Amino acid sequence: MSMTFCNVHFTQQPQKIVYVSGALMKSLKLSGKKSVKLRLGGERIPALVKPINKQGNHLYLASGVRKGIKVPMSGGVFLRNLDAGEVQIGPLIGILSDGTSSLINPFGSRTGFIKQLLREGSNQSYIFAFTPRDIDWQDESVNGYFLTETDRFTRKRVPLPDVVYNRLPSRRAETSTSINQLRERFIRKKIPFFNWSFFNKSDIYRLLENDPLAAQHIPESHMNPTPEQIKDMLDRHSFVYYKPSAGSLGKGIYRLSYVPKRGYYARYRNTKGNVLQRFATFSSLIKTLQTRHGRTLRSYVVQQGIRLIEIDACPLDFRFHMHKNGKNQWVVVGIGAKKAGKGSVTTHLKNGGSLLTPQQALSRVFGARGEEVLNNAKKTAITIAEAIEARDQHLIGEIGFDFGIDKDENIWMFEANAKPGRSIFRHPSLRAEGKASVEHILEHCLYLSKFRRREGV
Prior knowledge:
Strand content: 25-35%
Radius of gyration: 26 Å
Structural class: alpha+beta
Helix content: 25-40%
């Protein structure tokens, strides 16, 4: 199998003919052949081959061919020379999300990110975005959103894609029967579908507890804790975090602490802001939690509190944005240091936190040793990403980690997110990393679809 990058053009002839430049004929090993089977996604069509005298790699598709396999547009893409005289055009990359039927802002708050993916990817693929309702399973086609040269969306019907990058935004939707069926259908058709679903905290801790390298970086955690377990942890650790197993954005998190002779404290955030509540006894604290979250305290995790490094008496943690690259290896693409707001339970920017570069933060805390601490954290992030991937049954191409570092330079992993937010890339010093993040997503799509870029292309 060989692969070549070429320029695809359209002609108006109604026949099923492809016109191939001399250099491309040679690259695709078509010299002397009268016909070829052309493929896009799952669609195939036989076509006559006509060589043309033109410099470079050029492929001209007559309208009978273009319409027969639903080629969406002209431009630069890859060609794979498969067995039995078949040539595949692509890759055809699908970005799965949800939203409205508006052509201006079809994916709500995710529209800007999706446009960025389509803009970057259109130079080397047929890339489009779509929602679950855009799929026609009977026809095995998708009415996708493509981006025009004027940066506007246009709808085009194409075959099912070669690879799907899942950015469905809702945990609730992902657990629905229809979305489960959608994912399984792609898998049955052997279409790689990566970032299967949101992670559940309890599942991640369970995956990692038996991995000796990863487990040493996970704070003590208990799913569905009993009141006795919470009290035992408070006695041993002085403070703990009590958080929903399927939560995100810091919602529903409590910082529970015990101060001898003073009592118990719960710090949390409500609609009015940050709250600190004192309880004279442990039983009164538990009664309040049970009133709010059910007597069994199920679907919550209690986690050992870690004394994090601080700047200006405010704790710091770090968001590590991880990607699979074009060689299927985990790499750290972006890191943001998040400084908690005064009185906040978390470092989330929406809760009053602020963003720094990791170099800024670690040099203020560790001085000249900051770079070494950062490198150790990067190695740890790759170790934990590899451990999650090894134990997860589905394809993962992207992970966001929330890491903490204590004063003894120990590195702790608090959260792993399968669909991490991109707020760290808004920092002026991290915009290049934001662009690199998009490039890594596209490189991994090329890898999974088997359209790997050759050296020098």
